[in-house]
């Protein structure tokens, strides 16, 4: 299990940018029966662990002078310009209780319908909602598209091979991927025109919105002190 060393911090709402400039990432640890705990971790090491574990594999957070917690990395807020992490949540889990999580899907193989018939592979789902004990949560779930042999073939949730101890919360007949017929030149031209005419809007993800709210609360705390 990957491990992250952390220190408790008391500078809530103050000097966070100074910490970040020093290569320190502000974080918070919380969970069932665990009082919320502001932390500071080395950003470079955090990025390495995040790349290895993702948000569905267990990570051990070792508090300097304190306990070690088994956590999942949740809600990594990133700078909109540099995409560098600026805040992270560590969710402490109970190892004896199943939890729900969204696991990324990894598409592998080559579809004969795409290769031989010019079909278009459409990935309907990019993650799967599952339930499992924390130790059983997979880093990703593989989807073999080589079974898509003909135009119109589909892969459903029930077709996926889930690891032992993992069950899905999604409907069994939900489509994961399918192969559509090839588009004509006229259809492609119309699609291109529609994309060029469509206005580009900035849409914030739920996590970005939560991150902004969190930073706003910290700023408010700082102004009150």
Folded structure, characterized:
It is a single chain. With 225 residues, the protein is α+β, with helices and mostly antiparallel strands. It folds into two domains: 3-93, Ribosomal Protein L25, Chain P (Beta Barrel), CATH 2.40.240; 99-183, RNA Polymerase Alpha Subunit, Chain A, domain 2. Helix content is 24%, strand content 36%. The protein contains five helices and 13 strands. Strands 1-3-2-6-5-4 form a six-stranded mixed barrel. A hairpin with a 6-residue loop joins β5 (68-78) and β6 (85-92). The longest helix has 19 residues, at 206-224. The two termini are 40 Å apart. Mean pLDDT is 85; it is low at 201-206 and 219-225.
Q: What's the SSE blueprint?
A:
Blueprint: E1 3-8, H1 16-21, E2 24-31, E3 34-42, H2 43-53, E4 59-63, E5 68-78, E6 85-92, E7 99-108, H3 112-117, E8 120-123, E9 127-132, E10 141-144, E11 154-156, E12 167-168, E13 175-180, H4 185-197, H5 206-224
TL;DR of this structure?
By secondary structure, the chain is of the alpha+beta class. The protein has helices at residues 16-21, 43-53, 112-117, 185-197, 206-224, and strands at residues 3-8, 24-31, 34-42, 59-63, 68-78, 85-92, 99-108, 120-123, 127-132, 141-144, 154-156, 167-168, 175-180.
